[in-house]
Specification:
The chain is mainly beta. The chain contains 3 helices and 47 strands. The protein is elongated, with a radius of gyration of 31 Å. The chain starts with a helix and ends with a strand. Keywords: Signal. This is Peptidase S1 domain-containing protein. GO terms for molecular function: serine-type endopeptidase activity. It comes from Kitasatospora gansuensis.
């Protein structure tokens, strides 16, 4: 005799059986641990030990339907018994112990059974819809069925939901040791919000960085790996960065005001219900809020509504605010009363969730900080992307990826432009994430022979290699743009998560216009539109060094300028971007007096968030007259103003050839502080990569070497650009 899962769990438990949580002051985390629901009762009633599974292979009534997996066992001395299982998905896994099996009949799936016969574990392929003899006669102890693995079933039906940004999160292989499952919500193309308790039983101790176990999120039918966790320390919450974007789904918005006591909130999740173990579609319940604290929300099911169950951890608590759906909280804990597998003695249904309405700044900072300058493969570390002009006229785009120490690897090739296709001297490259997928791309402004100019974008693939370029905005020849009057920079000017092109253009009348070309989700550029224009004869075009970055921390890229006055004094200026992405009038800050005698030709200037405070700073390499090279940092304040340049590492006199260096800035070790990297050419023609990491104070430390190119590789120093 066998009973289906729901029927078994409808039977009252034996006297004295009680959830451990019933005696606890805090309800348990609502994380799905994949233990088989009601296993103790099934063992007592049917002598079958069901341990864990992915929810897709469940005990079934042998008379209820066709297409079952049928297992025959001599568990009872009186004769054989048939135990049946239903596979409810395209694949399924179940760990169990069913002794003395002697035959298994397959269903329409490809089924593999793992067996233990006399201490020897083996796997047997079960014939589809036929009986396969197993075990009998090979051991006096009989054969114990340990696992059922089903594959190659019909494709699962598409998820149907009115909350498409809500998806399922899985840690490990479902049903195997250590595996867990939760719910998560997309809050950016590449970020999901969920419970930190999904990843650990002690949410406050969750470590930032890559998850310890392979973890995935499935949203909108797309399954994506989680590559980085950014947890809160004051509440059960974590931001999970995805390996690639989930497009076609509108990310959910966070509420900006706290829920009120007695407010009704919807909770869509992929957790258990009263009768389902692993639902294919999210189910939605309604909860009424109780006590509200600075970090938490207590709630209970509305009349007739369901509790929050195992697997619902991370589910959003949604409110409708003036026609917009907002996340007010994230599910964390529940008493689980009425959920599948919860003992009948547990009748409490209250839940504790995490507030998020007061975390908008944190979520925004997390999303924007993850856009690492030059991060070609989206792993959170900047890389080096090189354009190399071969002697035959072809141009190769090569990437050197970095490791957690900021060391560079071998340059490997992506797209190669065929010989004689592009004029090397008619290209201005910029490096940025132009389509918002958190991988650094290359863009190019190209001048054709007739004087027309066009923008092109070469997107990076998942391996960090640049792919063929596609064209977008073009300027006709009769616009008469002066190629030598253009300086081009990249940065997210309007704060939409995509890098744009910011151009400084020097008109013939001496005025300087700052124009922005915004990008779309394909990385295509729009028309250049003007922001601030410097009046004629105000600035000396040859006395300017521009850098781009978010200097005031508002998630929009600005332009900063080091300007040399006629008397030799030098001053820093900042032109902030407005909400439309256009540069506004520049304001001055730190200045160096003329008697400091700074040599204008001894300065190389770079931008990056050197101290990790969320604002870009200026990093300067300065070559002293004795041949030493000092690395100095000027930090910015909340207004984008620059402070005094203070020194980090200084290269001893005559150690490096100033003309044999190409610097790039970026976060090469992934610690959220901008470093400097250097490609250096030695006297014998060999070339080596070096990294100078920034310390906690934002100052560059001594450089360490990594990848090198031998002299006999014959790399042409003048054929290299590191955008």
């Amino acid at each position: 005799m066998v009973w289906p899962l729901a029927a078994v769990l409808a039977i009252p438990l034996m006297a004295g059986s009680m959830s451990a949580s019933a005696a606890e002051a805090t309800p348990p985390l609502t994380v799905e641990g994949f233990s088989y629901p009601g296993a103790a009762q099934i063992l007592a009633e049917q002598h079958v030990t069901l341990k864990s599974g992915d929810g897709n292979i469940q005990l079934a009534d042998c008379t209820s339907t066709d297409n079952l997996i049928e297992v025959f066992s001599r568990t009872f001395d009186t004769g054989s018994v048939k135990v049946c299982f239903k596979v409810t998905g395209p694949t399924g896994y179940l760990a169990l112990e069913l002794p003395k099996v002697y035959s298994v009949k397959g269903d329409d799936h490809t089924v593999k059974a793992t067996l233990n016969t006399g201490g020897s574990v083996s796997s047997v392929d079960i014939k589809k819809n036929l009986y396969t003899p197993v075990g009998e006669g090979t051991s006096t102890d009989g054969t114990t069925l340990l696992e059922l693995n089903a594959t190659d079933g019909p494709a699962a039906a598409a998820v149907t939901t009115d909350t498409p940004a809500v998806g399922s999160l899985v840690i490990g292989q479902p049903g195997r040791a250590g595996s867990r499952a939760c719910t998560a919500t997309l809050v950016d193309r590449i970020w999901a919000l969920t419970s930190a308790g999904c990843f650990t039983d002690t949410p406050a101790t969750l470590a930032a960085g890559a998850p310890a176990t392979k973890s995935t999120v499935t949203i909108g039918g797309k399954t994506v790996d989680i590559v980085e966790l950014v947890p809160r320390t004051d509440r059960d919450l974590v931001m999970a960065r995805l390996a690639g974007p989930v497009d076609g789904i509108t990310p959910a918005k966070l509420a900006t005001t706290a829920p009120a006591t007695g407010e009704s909130l919807r909770v869509p999740g992929f957790g258990r219900t009263a009768t389902q173990w692993r639902p294919v579609n999210p189910h939605t319940t309604t909860h009424t809020t109780g006590a509200i604290t600075a970090t938490g929300i207590d709630s209970s099911p509305a009349t007739g509504a369901a509790p929050i169950c195992a697997g619902d951890a991370g589910a959003p608590l949604l409110r409708d605010q003036n026609g917009t759906v907002e996340i007010a909280g994230v599910a964390s804990r529940s008493w689980l009363g009425g959920c599948l597998g919860t003992p009948a003695a547990e009748t409490r249904t209250g839940a504790a969730s995490t507030r998020v309405d007061n975390l908008g700044q944190w979520v925004g900072d997390t999303v924007l900080r993850s856009v690492t300058r030059g991060d070609a493969n989206g792993d959170g570390r900047s890389d080096a992307i090189m354009a190399y002009h071969h002697a035959n006229g072809s141009i190769a785009f090569m990437t050197s990826l970095t490791d957690t120490n900021g060391a560079f690897s071998e340059y490997t090739s992506g797209y190669v432009v065929p010989p004689a296709s592009w004029d090397w001297d008619s290209i201005k490259f910029i490096n940025g994430d132009f389509n918002g997928d958190h991988r650094a791309d290359l863009a190019m402004m190209y001048r054709f022979g007739d004087g027309s100019i066009k923008m092109f974008t070469g997107l990076a693939d998942a391996t960090g290699h640049i792919q063929p370029f596609t064209s977008s905005y073009g300027v006709p020849a009769n616009a008469n743009w002066d190629w030598n009057a253009i300086q081009l920079y990249a940065g997210d000017a309007n704060g939409d998560g995509r890098s744009d092109a910011i151009m400084a253009y020097h008109h013939t009348n001496g005025s300087i216009a700052f124009m922005t070309s915004l990008t779309d989700t394909n990385g295509a550029f729009g028309e250049y539109t003007s922001g601030y224009v410097v009046p004629p004869a105000s600035w000396d075009w040859n006395a300017i060094r521009f850098i781009s970055g978010d200097f005031n921390g508002d998630h929009r890229s600005d332009l900063a300028m080091m300007y040399r006055f006629g008397d030799g004094s030098i001053k820093m200026f900042t032109g902030l971007a407005d909400t439309t992405g256009h540069i506004q009038p520049f304001t001055s800050s730190y200045g160096v007096p003329a008697n400091a005698n700074w040599d204008w030709n001894a300065i190389q200037l770079y931008a990056g968030d050197a101290n990790g405070d969320g604002r870009s700073d200026a990093i300067m390499a300065y070559r002293h007259t004795n041949g030493s090279i000092a690395f100095m940092t000027s930090f910015t304040d909340a207004n984008g103003a620059f402070g005094e340049y203070t020194s980090g590492y200084t290269v001893p006199a005559d150690s490096w050839d100033w003309n044999a260096i190409r610097f790039i800035s970026g976060d090469f070790n992934g610690d959220h502080r901008a470093d400097l990297a250097m490609m250096y050419r030695f006297g014998d023609g060999s070339i080596k990569m070096f990294t100078g990491l920034a310390d906690a104070t934002g100052h560059i430390q001594p450089f360490t070497s990594s990848y090198s190119v031998p002299a006999n590789a014959n790399w042409d120093w003048n054929a290299i650009r590191l955008p």
